[in-house]
Amino acid sequence: MEQARAALRTYFGYDSFRQGQEELVGAILEGRDVLGIMPTGAGKSVCYQIPAVLLPGLTIVVSPLISLMKDQVDALNENGIPAALLNSTLTAAEMNRRYRDIEAGRYRVVYIAPERLESDRFTEWLGRVEVSLVAVDEAHCISQWGHDFRPSYLSVARLTDRLEPRPVVAAFTATATPEVREDIAKRLRLQEPLRVTTGYARKNLSFRVVRGGDKRRELLRCLQEHEGEAGVVYASTRKEVEECHAFLGKQGIRAGKYHAGLEERERADAQDAFLRDDIQVMVATNAFGMGIDKSNVRFVIHYNLPKNVEAYYQEAGRAGRDGAPGECILLYSPQDTVTQKFLIEQGEGDEERKKTAYRQLNDMVQYAFSQECLQQAIVAYFGDTCEPCGKCGNCLDTEERLDVTEAAKVVFACVAGMRQRFGVSLTAKVLRGSGEAKIRQFGFDRLPVYGRMSGRSEKDIVGLIQALAAQGYMRVTDSAYPVVTLTAKVRAVLDGEERVYRRAERSADAEASGGTGYSRSGSGMGSARRGRPADDDLGAEGEALFAKLKTLRKSLADRENVPPFVIFHDATLREICRVRPTTERALKDVKGIGEAKIAKYGKAFLDVIREH
User: Fold this and answer.
1) Alpha helices of 55-142 — where are they, by DSSP H?
2) Is the same domain home to 181 and 60?
3) Which domain holds residue 548?
4) Where are the compositionally biased (Low complexity) regions (predicted)?
5) Residues 6 or more apart from 319 whose CB is under 8 A from it?
6) What is the DSSP letter of 136?
7) Which of 125, 183, 379, 597 is the most exposed place for a label (fewest CB within 10 A)?
8) 46-93: per-residue pLDDT in tens?
């Protein structure tokens, strides 16, 4: 491990490993398979890049996206580690040259797409090369229960079985439920792997949910709070992306757009502009971003409800990869659920997979109505625990917690009276006293609770039902037409042993003119933007130097044809501003600056610092 720590210092500019990294690196160097579950920004790639430098043969990295491959290959070469990629962007001549260079031992790391493993010709050729390690990035893609299932990942095990001697296999992902973790180990045929889970909590991220109100007005407010910072706005459909992008353009906000319906060249140009900081905002479907290595994304806004908690956390986790504060905002409306159900029905898969998708969607809706710490709610979904984060919308919400026990009892009685066979919407209509023919047909207008909530809107009643479900008093079945059922937890309420509380709801629209919070589920904010830690405050003069260093970084990145974060992360620039090094020796003490970068860029940055 002394050699590993020395390599970490030389190539990456850090003196010590982060949590979990040393265990995983040590196991790989000892020849043991590993499974690492580490949140985005925890440094998964270092766990196989350091062994790649020290092991005698080649390291193959299976990566799902061309853009991710390019970013990581650029970063490795900038750090002085010879790396290359093999993908469809190369011409036949370039590919042949790359094969010859690999056989000649000119690279330590080679990135490939999983689809390349489906070629018998490729796997036979690879048998002529000494392969010490096969690293599987975004390993959740191998699981049919994961949210990004890629059948081509199943070829990884076939490859490792054919290679002699069998290389070490290392699998990494940011999010995986216990079911998905077992599936990864099984399908990759990992041999007694060391399993390391560093925890799912992202301490630098703040979460909030905005329910109801005018989404576009809320979107503008969020973008104004993060003016000049990089962020992603996710929408659920191509149409939503186009409309949202056009709306921002009319507001004078320059943004890119990305979805599968665009020409490949247009998508690539938009992505490059975002990665290179030529534009700060990207509006996209979930086709954008898996594995995007851009470190300085400060916010992620979900304009629509994602399909499940895993997808949400993967996408939201693209904020704050550099460890600096990031804000994750979900804008929720009931129509989002309708859209996701449509997508489930239109998607591929048998009835079992669709049932799983509906269950996951219900979990996502419960998150949107959660009354507790939002970080805790996410972590609990993955079978983990953490302390209240203290900075999500719910933790910072100072609204009164209302006793809604009597209203809850009315809801429970209605669900029971409807024989637990109907959905949220019809239950709300009965409570409101609707005259719908279906209600009369089933005789629900004769229930004692019929019309007991006639003074409330149907939307408000639906929100109450969803909140009760989020607290575990009821559950919604996993189907296209979900049914509301009661849980055993209801008994304590009906017997008078337990009271039910709910945060006071306030309309986002009502607060738009001057309130401090938003619609109450993750409402009263305190965002990362407004809450940058005191120790990260550079002061006016420090921020001026930071701006100069960013300008220099951008010019160097354009010259090298790489994204700016490949040169240095924002966190590294901010530490430079605090330390103010004026010699190469002092520059070496800044975290994140290895020897290759000092040799290549040190003088340019030192000149700017001295001049400032």
Assistant:
1) 66-78, 92-103, 120-126
2) yes
3) 535-611
4) 510-528
5) 205, 231, 232, 297, 298, 299, 300, 326, 327, 328
6) E
7) 125
8) 999 999 999 999 999 998 877 778 889 999 999 999 999 998 888 999
